[in-house]
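Collaborator request, handled under Task 6.
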Amino acid sequence: MDTDSLRDIIIAVVCSNGLFTLIQFLLSRHDTKKGLEKKVDRLSECFEEHKATLARTHILRFADELRNGTVHSEEYFRQQIMDIDTYNKYCDSHPDFANGLTVMASEYIREEYRRQYLNGQGGVA
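Structure tokens returned to the collaborator:
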């Protein structure tokens, strides 16, 4: 076998081994990236559920405070309405989430907002 042929065979073996190593690396990186994406997705879902649970707590607490005569600013009412919207959106997209817990409280908050700040004229609340 001449030197050029041997050199070509060695280059082919080294290159194919290098290519195999590169493919292994890319596959393992892709698998790692997939695993990382799954973890990020799970973390994001946990965060969204926590936000909904926190919004539910705010809604129920605020409704109780109103029933007990605590006076709140219009801005605080608006924040509670945003919490209601956040909670309802999460519940709409997650039917297995316990979502019937704030229906009466949410209605009560909206009614009180209309009564106190819209003088019974209706509105966006």
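The cover message to the collaborator said: "The chain has a mean pLDDT of 82. The first helix runs from residue 3 to 67. Please let us know whether this matches your experimental observations."
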